[in-house]
Amino acid sequence: MRHAVLAVALLLWLSPADLLAQTTKLRVAICARTISMGVGSPFAVAMKMGWFKQEGLEVEIVPLPGSTDCVKAVATGEVPISLPSVEPLANGRPQGVKAKIYYTAYQTNGYGIAVPADSTIRSPAELRGKSIGVTSLASAGVVVARAQVAAAGLDPARDVQIVVAGEGAQTAAMMRNRQVDALSQFDTQYAMVENAGVRVRYLDRRDIERFPGNGFLASEETLKTRRKELIGFARSYAKGTIFTIANPEAAVRIVYEMFPQTKPTGKDEATAVREDIKVLEARMPHYKLEPADVKRWGESSETNYRDYVDFLVKWSVITQKVPTGDLITNEMIDEINRMDPAKIAAEAAAYRYSR
Asked: Measuring CA to CA, how many Å separate 166 from each of 272, 325, 350?
């Protein structure tokens, strides 16, 4: 009884600002070894604008090597949320991974095989005997490479060599030195490679570009027990996404502030900002709802996910078809979208960055 009285007294004594400051820490894994502009922007903006805090959250970003690690981290309870692509989840579901994507962050697929702009290679069918560089062997780029190579009539286990080429400038150096013939990475990585001086060209990716990209994954238990936190997190992230689209220059500067390690060294700020706007512009088409034919932020298209699983099964990238309802849920989307996107976009467009 005495403890209860003290607790009530403490609540009465605390100011509204103090109460707001009582936040829940939430660890969220991203599926890359480092925080980059394309991944970090919605997070950084939500932090800067206080949107996570308004939802009672303090978000910690946990970098992991790739989507496979992100799915494992959720399955083992290492993190409550991660941001993988769907392929390792589709593989893991039959093995007992009970988790679902509850918010699709990238509505269309930024992956695809690319080659140096001056390469003689024009299609995946011409990759026989060639090496393909991925960010890590846990990356979804491995899965995409195998699928595209198989669809072109090659045996991905025998006809190509998949190797780790790293990220950004490291990838560019390997391309420049012809240590790899092609890459299976993604939109923002290719923009960073070009910023490092190596122009690249996508091979035909019409077979995959309409498929969904990454989304926020949580275990079925977490979806039940931490619902409020998951909704608040996703709503804040959605606001950060809307802001990024409306004002990419301010978003770049906010990322530099919130994640100082992302600010390039060895170049003036104007050049750094210009190049990182290019990185964001590579990602922004995949944020948008219209190409996926969805209406709400984070909504998962059942048709697009089903078609992607069918594609992966067809080319033996995953061993069995998984029901779409086992991979995604839109159950929280209405609550996540309790905001005014037009107002957020207008305020973002008028925003002038200052520390």
From this structure: 21, 34, 37
Inter-residue contact 52 to 58 (CB < 8 Å): yes
Instruction: Give the containing element (helix H, strand E) for 63.
Output: strand 57-63
Two tokens at 287? Answer: 């944020």
Round to whole Å and give the CA distance between 54 and 21.
Answer: 9
Which single residue is written with the structure tokens 């991203």?
A: 30
SS3 of residue 161 by DSSP: strand
pLDDT tens digit string along 2-36? 444 444 444 444 445 554 457 899 999 999 888 99
Condensed to tens digits (0 to 9), the pLDDT of residues 100-153 reads 999 999 999 999 999 999 999 999 999 999 999 999 998 889 989 999 999 999
Length, in residues, of the chain: 355
Beta strands across the sheet bearing 182-186: 160-164, 130-134, 182-186, 111-116, 200-202
Identify the H or E element spanning 290.
none
Q: What is the pTM of this model?
A: 0.88
Name the phi and psi angles at 162, rounded to 5.
-100, 125
**Rounded-to-integer distance, Cα 116 and Cα 149, Å:** 18
| Phi and psi torsions of 204, nearest 5° | -55, 120
